[in-house]
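Friendly challenge for the regulars: who can give me the structure tokens for this chain first? No prize, just bragging rights.
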Amino acid sequence: MYNQIDSNKRKSIFLIFIFFILIAGIGYILSRVLNYGYSPLVIAVVISMFMVGISYFAGDKIALISAGAKSIGKEENPYVYRIVENLCITAGLPTPKIYIINDPAPNAFATGRNPEHSSIAITTGLIQTMENEELEGVIAHELSHVKNYDVRLATLVVVLVGALSIIADMFLRSFLFGGRRSNNNKNGNGILAIIGIILIILSPIIGQLIQLAISRKREFLADASGALMTRYPEGLARALEKISQYKQPMQRFSNATAHLFFTNPYFSSKKFLSSIFSTHPPIEQRIQALRNMI
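First reply, four minutes later:
Bragging rights claimed.
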């Protein structure tokens, strides 16, 4: 389990490093070609961070409202509340606010920028479908997202994707409609211009793929951390098996919050392209990874 956790942490750091290299590369190449200096790069990053800052501090409330989640207390559902509370004691976490989503699809998600400002939402379908150990496994997975600061990491990635998109759009417009192109070393600038155009076209796609890859790695990490929390990987593996048999999408969710859920809120798909552009790794791979820990 510890090997799985360490591996996913290293891969997430590596993917973020690629993001920084991609942004810096586009900024450097196109600043040289257009002779604008580095001020557009700085402006693009500042704008992106401002936009994401709003979602960082209010994103949890938006996600809960969009999913139709209703807050509950200990008296309203002592069974669920007790499971969450016991797992938080085990993990050394403050008990998050607990929400129930009235939806037959078995799913859950956690949100919040840190453990002190966190919430966990669970569908009625998950509560009704799962045995005690299976429900514990899913809740432990979501609490692991809180403990591992995955929301903070996801926000950083969104900042980088936003910066990448703004930079690409800014330089594309400048390249097409004007710009103080340098006359020095024309052949070299011509090659840089071609590389820059290719990067502009491909960077949004590359950025999205890196974002999805990081999201998938964090799911593996949360599976491993959740199994470590319960000391019973088989419970989470069986929960994933049950969920894989449910083919109906959730009733309320948005594309912006799909990556938060325990499993894909649309429905599971084995198609190659669906796997590439999914925010979650294939359930079969997650089950296999969990059973390799036993």
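Strands lie at 69-72, 97-101, 108-111, 119-123. The chain has one domain: 2-292. Your move, everyone else.
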